Amino acid sequence: MAHDVQTSIYDELYIIGDVDRVIFMSEDTRFHVLRVTVEKTNTQFKEDAIVTGHFHDIEESERYKFTGKVTQHARFGEQFSASEFKKEIPNTSQGLVQYFSSDKFPGIGTKTAEKIVEALGLDALSKITKDDNALNDVSGLTKAKKLQITETVRSSNAADEAYLLMIKLNIEPSKRSKIIDTYKEDTLNVLQNHPYQLVSDIFGIGFKKADQIAINAGIEPSDPERLVAGVMYTLNDEISSIGHTYIMYMELQDKTLERLNNAAEYFSQEDVSVAVEQLALNKKLIITEDRVTLPNIYYSEHKSAEKLSHILRDNPDEIDLDKAKDVIQSIEKSLSIGYNDNQRHAILNALTEKVSIITGGPGTGKTTIVKGIITLYQEIFEYEDYDSYEPKNYPIKLVAPTGRASKRMADTSGIEASTIHRLIGWGQDTAVDDIIDNEIEAELIIVDEMSMVDTWLFYQFMQNVMPHTKLVFVGDSAQLPSVGPGTVFKDLIGSGVIKTTILDTVYRQGEGSSIVKLAYDIDNGVPMNINDKFKDRLFIPAGTNQIAEVVDTLVSKAVDKGYDMRDIQVLAPIYRGPAGINNG
Predict the structure, then answer these.
(1) To the nearest whole percent, how much of the chain has pLDDT over 90?
(2) Looking at domain 6-87, what is its CATH homologous superfamily?
């Protein structure tokens, strides 16, 4: 549910009242919209009010005090946006009787509630919270019922205390209910003594936020739990943000101390080493020789390697090479092209090898080779009649890590293609076990844009590939690596155990264009003279603070010459600074 932007018109006001109805509640964020019958307030709401906010354990017919501000909703008018709330403790006999006979205490009727109030007085709730034997003097209560009442009162009080503490600790409203739901009666203990536990248990709370919570809770910067959490934060950051699959042991020590403010004042490298070893004993990380990684990364890489080795050990089908070569010649004629020897080898490798790789830059013929592989496979194994198959049952599967890349494969091949995620059934809420059990029925799988595939995705994909299936990995090893951890495509090429075709002849580029050649020269470290002039590129000297103005002038001139703005691109290597994307 979307919540329209609201405009504040008052500050820090309160409403005390009974929740008449919960109009809306988000299960994920616990954002509520409540109708409240007003008992007392310093706002203009005199009879009832719509109260909104992130609340935990709101109950209809219960009385609460809401603190916040009046807002003007674009569609629904004036509302009360609460930043804090607290259940009002009954302070009259009648109120306490109503409380103990409410749905919160199943099996307790009005008469029993009256006995409790008569025996314990107006501070009944306080007595029950503090004294295990407070209900012993109430006649008619079984031992089980006494325990139930005591636990309910204490649980409710603990949740209220925890919620108020989280407000003081500046924990955002959307996280408060998640924390209470996770730790329940142990919430106060975690917040006050083990806030770094939040990092691993509560999505959206990272080390920096937990560190601030710890400071607000009065925990010393030298607390050993802070160092342990700091090690895990550093390791996770190296993997998720930078893309490494491991970090060197000594580097982990140094970077952990860098990330913990004033760390040298409290911790030594030996302290970090102790923390790392403790985490290894608890199986939170894995140490191999002088490298440290996360268990899921370690096992993903090892399981992927094992599966690949298993597939590579399986002997491929016997292929009539003479027939295959004849088919390739007929493909060349039908497409009006001529494959070079390197390209022909790439096509044949797809049939003769269980796993093969094709790598090359733009314009080197990868798409044409893939089309040749598909056609060759169709004719050799008699899969030509594509329309007679259900797409999901076709023996050749085309996949890519992105929707755009898979659509391009489908458009150029005439065969349905999908993302890897879709092929293996990996949705946002899919359990890992369900993904691994989803075997792919295929004789040949061609994976395009392999440089974009990270360690996680490759593992999930490989676990679903059947041993008899042939695999062809296609991509450009010179492209930037995947956003996620690992450089899977480069590692596969570098392993030396998979037959690899490297395409280095450029075909698809405008006649006389120098751009692709420039890209290859840069990639291969070939010296160039930046002052050389070409019809499709030009170097213009400019200072950092002049670049934006120069680009603006060039774009204006291009538009004046008749170019459409949609055909003009400005590329920048950085986000910040006068020449960065953010200054566009």
Answers:
(1) 46
(2) Nucleic acid-binding proteins (2.40.50.140)
> What's the average model confidence in pLDDT over 206-224?
92
Beta-sheet pairing, 31-41 with 6-8: unpaired
Q: For residue 1, what pLDDT is reported?
A: 35
Per DSSP, the three-state class of 468 is: coil
Cβ pair 565, 559 in contact under 8 A: yes
Note the helical H segments in 314-396. Answer: 321-335, 341-352, 366-380
Fold assignment, 319-503: Rossmann fold (3.40.50)
Taking the C-alpha atoms of residue 171 and residue 174, their distance in angstroms, rounded to an integer, is 8
Q: How many CA atoms lie within 13 A of 102 on its CB side?
A: 16
Rounded CA-CA distance 214/229 in Å is 12
Domain boundaries, the chain: 6-87, 93-167, 319-503, 540-583
**Confidence at residue 435, expressed as pLDDT on a 0 to 100 scale:** 53
At residue 5, the pLDDT reads 37
Dihedral sign of CA atoms 72, 76, 82, 83 in order: negative
Q: Are the C-beta atoms of 252 and 235 separated by less than 8 Å?
A: yes
Per DSSP (E only), the strands in 405-534 are 417-419, 444-447, 470-475, 499-503
pLDDT in tens, 396-415: 999 999 999 999 999 988 89
**4 has a pLDDT exceeding 50:** no
Paired tokens of 421: 């995620």
Measured between alpha carbons, how far is 416 from 398 in angstroms, rounded to an integer? 7
* The pLDDT of residue 46 is above 50: yes
Q: Which of 466, 489, 171 is closest to 357 using CA atoms?
A: 489
pLDDT value for 460? 93
CB 350 within 8 A of CB 472: yes
3-class DSSP state for residue 400?
strand
Residue pair 257/502 in contact by the 8 Å Cβ criterion: no
User: 444-447 and 396-400: which strand pairing?
Assistant: parallel
